Amino acid sequence: MSEPRIPRLDLSETFQARYEAYRRRVEDGLERLLPAASRWPEPIHEAMRYAVFSGGKRLRPVLTLAACELAGGSVEAALPAACAVELVHTYSLVHDDLPAMDDDDMRRGRPTVHVAYDEATAILAGDALLTLAFTVLADPDGPLTPAVALRIAFELGTAAGTAGLIAGQVADLAAEGAAVDGRELERIHRHKTGALFRACARIGAIAAGAGPADVERLSRFADEFGLAFQITDDILDVVGDEAATGRPAGSDERRGKTTFASLYGVETARRLAVEAAQRAAAELEPFGARAGFLRDLAFFAVSRSG
Amino acid sequence: MSEPRIPRLDLSETFQARYEAYRRRVEDGLERLLPAASRWPEPIHEAMRYAVFSGGKRLRPVLTLAACELAGGSVEAALPAACAVELVHTYSLVHDDLPAMDDDDMRRGRPTVHVAYDEATAILAGDALLTLAFTVLADPDGPLTPAVALRIAFELGTAAGTAGLIAGQVADLAAEGAAVDGRELERIHRHKTGALFRACARIGAIAAGAGPADVERLSRFADEFGLAFQITDDILDVVGDEAATGRPAGSDERRGKTTFASLYGVETARRLAVEAAQRAAAELEPFGARAGFLRDLAFFAVSRSG
């Protein structure tokens, strides 16, 4: 079997412009949703903003918005939900970085929240971001009908809870220094990162009023997308440029963590990532040319440098 | 001004039987909502159950159910929401007890979650309980219309976030060892404990389909109820029996915390608590005799021993 070509980041200007347009909507949305840093009690609002506005790629909310548009909805319909997903993602990073968890001092090239503030503030800021995510979805002035908004809250809650993200984090911590095979590694990542990506695609589709077939198709896309993303993340931890990833290289290895890179080697892991992106793209075929952006997004996930 | 008589716990058998009936419904509801301890990943589900089934009084969900019935609704209508409130309350205790926060080793006579398990598990169990609370409210099989369920989620999110519970915890931590006057102390407690009690009463009323006048009346009841409860909590920290309260006496003082008891003295604090309970009861007058249970509940809040 020949090695598949690793795509270079030669994504079209159209892709980049559209990504940037989505990303700006998300930044604006988050800016409006986060309480002002001057609001009492100030330290928690400062810390929440520090965590949220830290130069993240906004990949999850971009996926949410793009899935909504592909399924026939508007950016407006999915924007609060997209922001809610990013709030959940951010809370999970703030708590994962805590000394009792992954004990990371740096993220995206800056001190993590518990280093910049203190541990109590980081715990509470994470709690507050998680709470805000659901409050945003329940906002009576939101763009969706109550039935659709509630369905989205259920998707997000299920993905973020102990059937999803939290399960992945528990299993990930338990696996440190333990022997982990490929099946267990996939299970960890299907929960730790996969569940939230899957929720993004589903939530976007649901916000658009899509039928079950499109919701399921976009779910399958997101499952492969999430796998491609995670394998690439593992590879970047080994070979990535610290300036681009914003974190010290080799932290997984120092921590005794089994990753796709350590289990299969970097070259095989690269192939697995590209194959997952290809399977993701294949799921989009029934949508035709309109799916170009999400297809490009899958290859972006595996060709990114940070 | 004469000292008001401190009511003894001579609450009627009717009150006690009804409290117990509500409490059992809540226990059953929580039992059904919490994932089995045998479900993967087991440690997180064990820790969640350890935190939730620890002999708590279930005062908040009982208030929610009673408010719903008083406003003309059924226990069935409010039960998931009542359980959601208890999940939020429990998460807040688990996180407040963490070493970086209040650093408490014991609660309700048992080791706190981070002592019984570990810090990472306690952080994640708290996160999971908070997430579950909103997931329960968004359950498509719930008893409420999506519009009512969403309104309740918004009430709970607002009360639990940085305009409520989290603000109170931030201000409480900031106040440790600092000079705090009566106004600031009330502000802390209006957020730290008051917001969630207020949400209980509002959520119960909303689940019943109550109009704005009843929702507001029950809100005002709950504000005074919460104040009466908190002042009593402060008094119990000074004079309480450790066997009844389940925690070491005098912990507030050792921590340099200003409380209603330290600021006003125990006797004046008792008077303030009873006066708040009386104001709470007065809010219920328009409901007539049907409000007997909630009136008794207000006096239970100030005459309890643990």
Beta-strand proportion of chain A: under 5%
CATH fold group of chain A: Farnesyl Diphosphate Synthase
Distance between the termini of chain A: 29 Å
Q: What is the 3D shape of chain A?
A: globular
CATH class annotation of chain A:
Mainly Alpha
Give your account of this protein's structure.
The structure is a homodimer of 306-residue chains. With 306 residues, chain A is an all-alpha fold. Chain A has a single domain (13-299), classed as Farnesyl Diphosphate Synthase. Chain A is built from 15 helices and two strands. The first copy, chain A, has helices spanning 13-33, 42-52, 59-70, 75-96, 113-116, 119-137, 146-160, 165-175, 182-207, 212-239, 242-245, 251-254, 260-264, 266-283, 292-303; strands at residues 106-107, 110-111. Chain A has a two-stranded antiparallel sheet with strand order 1-2. In chain A, strand 1 (106-107) and strand 2 form a beta hairpin. The mean pLDDT of chain A is 94. Chains A and B meet through helix 2, helix 6, helix 7 and helix 8 of A and helix 2, helix 6, helix 7 and helix 8 of B.
Short descriptors:
306 residues; 15 helices; homodimer; Farnesyl Diphosphate Synthase; mainly alpha
